[in-house]
Amino acid sequence: MAYSDAQKEATARYNKKAYDFISVVVPKGKRKRIAEYAASQGKSMNRFINDAIDAQLPPEKPEE
Questions:
Q1: What is the tens place of the pLDDT at every residue in 12-52?
Q2: Does some domain include residue 38?
Q3: Does residue 42 lie within any of the structural domains?
Q4: Is residue 49 situated within a structural domain?
Q5: Is the pTM for the entire model greater than 0.90?
Q6: pLDDT confidence of residue 5
Q7: Comparing C-alpha atoms, which of 62, 52, 50, 43 is closest to residue 19?
Q8: Separation of alpha carbons 6 and 55, rounded Å
Q9: Domain span at residue 53?
Q10: How far, in Å, CA of 49 to CA of 57, rounded?
């Protein structure tokens, strides 16, 4: 079954509501290295980058 225009629009609305987007600039060739390494770890490039960020951020404090 084809991905309809309505489905595309619904996905775009959900993504806009649920996620913040960040653009990362890397030297030529590094994107490929990141993608290959992430795949070798069984992760998407997005998951790999998020895990790397999470490893460096201090834990979130619970809201009171």
A1: 999 999 999 999 999 999 999 999 999 999 999 999 999 99
A2: yes
A3: yes
A4: yes
A5: no
A6: 94
A7: 50
A8: 37
A9: 28-57
A10: 12
CA angle 37, 52, 38 (to 5 degrees): 15
14: left (phi over 0), alpha (psi -120 to 50) or beta: alpha
pLDDT digits (tens, 9 = 90+) for 49-60: 999 999 999 988
Is residue 45 one of the residues assigned to a domain?
A: yes
Domains in the chain, number: 1
Calpha distance 44→8 (Å, rounded): 21
* Residue 43 CB neighbour total at 10 angstroms: 14
Residue for token pair 């913040």 = 20
Which tokens sit at 10?
A: 């619904």
